[in-house]
Design goal:
With 235 residues, the chain is an alpha/beta fold. The chain has helices at 42-49, 71-77, 94-101, 110-120, 122-126, 137-149, 167-184, 195-201, 219-224, 226-233; strands spanning 2-13, 16-27, 31-35, 55-61, 64-65, 79-82, 155-159, 187-191, 204-209, 212-218. A six-stranded mixed β-sheet has the order 6-7-8-3-9-10, with helices on both faces. A four-stranded antiparallel β-sheet has the order 2-1-4-5, with helices on one face.
Length: 235
Amino acid sequence: MNLLEVAELRAGYGPVRVLHGVDFTVHDGEVVVILGANGSGKTTTLRALSGMIPARGDVRFDARAICGHKPEKVARLGIAHVPQGRGTLSDLTVDENLRLGAYVRADNEIAADLERWYTVFPRLADRRSQQAGSMSGGEQQMLAIARAIMSRPKLLLLDEPSLGLAPIITQDLFRVLGDLNKSDGLSMLVVEQNAALALGIAHRGYVLEAGSIAVTGSATELAANDDVRRAYLGI
């Protein structure tokens, strides 16, 4: 079943067009990665999906048309966006950031979810009363992801989660994401330049070039594609 269906997605910034009719899907329970060079339109794609910028096209999430919706409505439908550059609220504590992530919920399991993510990310548990802005980049990325998951989304959008992180932190982060997909069936759309790690947890992928899809295939097929290997895997 397609959780997200995107057809003829077009978006940009003012008069500058970045996406030129992008088509892709994300199945329920699937991890999909979008690869591409800087400026290819990866971040613009996620911003268009989450309603952060104006966009045109046929975008359906859980069979509902969402193109043009405001970010809050998109979030309430079940899409959580972890933007590039963390996006934590630096003046709030770790605990306050996590509780804020659950603002779209109206159930009585928020406290249980808090403890779950403190267990998954023990560094956050150690710093629950600390201001987010005083933490390391890796800790802030963990917080940004945990805060997004606190909304219990059906689809998690991740924009360059490895950006600026040490390799060992990046590997641990992708391990957690892969485990989360397997244990909870959480669907993910990941924009990432570390192609090897992204393809390691992905089911399928797309290569974006100059605002259009150039290559598509399973994660295994993309990892074996000579052009993809040379451009994104350094092989």
